Backbone:
């Protein structure tokens, strides 16, 4: 093989590799959109409206939470489309290594979620999505740096995430019903437990005197530890800057992270919400 032939072969191989990666990335993008559409379509077309009687029997902190976050008379939309921007930490407490991100999320507890994002730090660009089925991130839109999911560890970890985020952004999805139970843990703390298709997750919610949720914490199945072993460990965050969206009063600033309330905690997820919509036909 001559030098010219070898160079031509290398160039052709490089082009084919780039085209294959671009095709793979496009398939991921289409799968994101398809999953987001399916979750959005699960929204009830004619949900009931909130009345105080619906939550009168709940523990006092839970009752206050619902009456603060949902204005009586509001249709109980349980699927939300959330637009946000913020910082996403790729490191640890000593070196957070934050990337600036923008993202759109469809949240449909208990069915699932898709968080589709773009992030940057200097010249570095990261894009991809996280969901109840996968975690897929690409560097510079071309190199796959994470392609995870489809196993019990990922499923259970993701379930913890989107149950907790339902406390933030889709309180109607947490109203008492099949698979959803509430219990009081103190004057200002309530615990919601979700059981769904063999999965179970409890989240503890702290509320202010007026019912504003201020903090969530739970035991999350995670390998975010030095041993990189999946186990239950504390996760949680703080909620603030509440605004109304179609009758729902929701936090627009969230700070959350692993090892909550320990000396290892740092908020690797810091988000400011710019819009919350409840799409329906």
Residues:
């Amino acid at each position: 093989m001559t030098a010219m032939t070898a160079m031509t072969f290398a160039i052709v191989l490089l082009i084919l590799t780039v085209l294959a990666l671009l095709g793979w990335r496009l398939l991921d993008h289409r799968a994101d959109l398809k999953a987001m559409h399916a979750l959005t379509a699960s929204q009830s077309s004619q949900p009931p409206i909130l009345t105080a009687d619906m939550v009168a029997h709940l523990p006092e902190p839970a009752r206050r939470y619902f009456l603060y976050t949902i204005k009586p008379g509001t249709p109980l939309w349980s699927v939300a489309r959330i637009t946000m921007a913020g910082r996403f930490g790729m490191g640890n407490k000593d070196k957070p290594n934050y990337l600036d991100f923008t993202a759109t999320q469809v949240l449909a507890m208990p069915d699932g979620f898709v968080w589709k994002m773009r992030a940057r730090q200097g010249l570095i660009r990261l894009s991809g999505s996280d969901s109840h089925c996968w975690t897929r991130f690409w560097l510079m839109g071309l190199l796959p740096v994470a392609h995870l999911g489809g196993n019990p560890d990922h499923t259970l970890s993701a379930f913890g995430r989107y149950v907790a985020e339902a406390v933030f952004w889709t309180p109607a999805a947490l109203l008492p019903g099949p698979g959803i139970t509430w219990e009081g843990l103190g004057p200002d703390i309530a615990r919601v437990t979700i059981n769904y298709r063999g999965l179970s997750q409890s989240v503890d919610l702290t509320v202010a005197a007026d019912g504003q949720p201020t903090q969530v914490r739970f035991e999350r199945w995670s390998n975010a530890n030095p041993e990189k072993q999946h186990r239950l460990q504390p996760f949680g965050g703080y909620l603030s800057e509440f605004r109304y969206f179609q009758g729902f009063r929701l936090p627009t600033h969230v700070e959350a992270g692993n090892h909550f309330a320990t000396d290892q905690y740092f908020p690797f997820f810091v988000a400011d919400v710019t819009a919350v919509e409840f799409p329906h036909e």
